[in-house]
Amino acid sequence: MRLRFAAAAWVLLVSQAASGAAAAGEAGPAAEAGSRRPNFVFFLIDDLGQTDLGCYGSTFYETPNIDRLARRGMVFTNAYAACTVCSPTRAALLTGKYPARLHITDWIAGHQRPFAKLRVPEWTKYLPHEEVALPEALAPAGYVSACLGKWHLGGPDYWPEKHGFAENIGGFDKGQPPSYFSPYKIPTLAEGPEGEYLTDRLTAEAEKFLERHRDRPFLLYFPHYAVHTPLQAKPELVEKYRAKAEANPQRLQKNPVYAAMVESTDQSVGRILAKLDELKLTDNTYVFFTSDNGGLIPVTHNGPLRAGKGSPWEGGTRVAAIAAGPGIAAGSRSSVPIITPDFYPTILELAGVAGDAKHNAQVDGKSIVAVLKNTGTLAPRPLFWHYPHYHPGGATPYGAVRLGDYKYLEFYEDGHGELYNLSADIGEQHDLAGEMKEKAAELKALLARWREEVGAQMPAPNPDYDPARADQPARAKQPRRNQSGRASAAGRAAGA
Hints:
Elements: H1 6-23, E1 39-45, H2 64-72, E2 74-80, H3 86-95, H4 99-102, E3 118-119, H5 134-138, E4 144-148, E5 167-169, H6 198-212, E6 218-223, H7 235-247, H8 256-278, E7 285-291, H9 314-317, E8 318-324, E9 332-334, E10 338-339, H10 343-351, H11 369-372, E11 383-387, E12 398-403, E13 406-411, E14 417-421, H12 437-454, E15 460-461, H13 489-493
Parallel strand pairs: 1-6, 1-7, 2-9, 2-10, 4-5, 4-6
Antiparallel strand pairs: 2-8, 3-15, 7-8, 11-12, 12-13, 13-14
């Protein structure tokens, strides 16, 4: 029996009352008379690289169900996570705000380097109650919401049920599961039969949620723990991909355990899509699919994108993004740059509550409904990143801005900048900062103004700086272990 809390029961009662009001004809000005508000399913995959899907070019990982979702809807080719690590992106999704504005700028609880050149700011390690999370904005319109899987936005006082989710199955403060096989040792998930696989179990719970709430509007937020470390997968799938990797050892993507985790995640998506079909909910449900950051190197390979999770380059923040649902043309593609905070106002607009729902002030995201429905586009705008931290994979504090084809990176340790033309150099191999000094200065100034506007916290000079020990972490951590039990360098570098 999953854990239930008084707060969750209260949220459920409120949303039931609101649902009754909606059924009585109080659906709101944006809803058509007599129609039910649309449902939402949001898949957030952990550490999935943009090129880890068949529909984004992978020939090693097999993702037929996600590819089918892509054929049913719109694929974004310039989609970005709000941060290069997970917790900030999750907070941005649920609030529509940039991590810098929230002061949630690293994975919780973060990584400390006491002798590094810069001292990181005192940032926020939970999602504040003052923020109106997405389910709280939707509840007055009759929506019931569930969080199935990874939360990673604070301890028990800040778990999903404290932010408007009527159901929390599997979400707690940690950023990875102790095990992908039962016993899971996750406090908000009852143990299953020994050897049960976590991705399958969460999917079964999601199917039950859909069955329970088929007759009312819902938000199913499904942030998978997969494909984050520890690398653990079902043996039969591991063997399948081991044989595939051995047949072509020159592949850049070739980790069989990771590939098996990707396939299990794809199977999960397929099961949820099938359940929506079975319950005759597909025609009134919007399905979103994306990742919280780029793929982890060397577990996967993000080429042609540079580097991966934790880094300031495209491999750290560019992600897959797919949307399908009413009014979204099948097989459509968009090159419009979008970023995680955009999903918050988008879902509120699609739900018909954007104009009258209680929601966050200073929302940074922009609704992409016009793009989804091909009725317009977004005005050109800059996208921003702010990571005033050190990452276990080696990244140092940085900021970045993309405007049009150009992306500027500022590295806070020494203040140097890099400029890239992404349309001509997606791999960020040719730094143009020296050749295009005016453009670099323009974007650097834009980035500085934005930081001031959102109140971004900056790192400060570290009085304990010691070049000989600058890369030394605050405390030694036990290495994560792969399926065979052996420590892996990727696990040690993963962060959360």
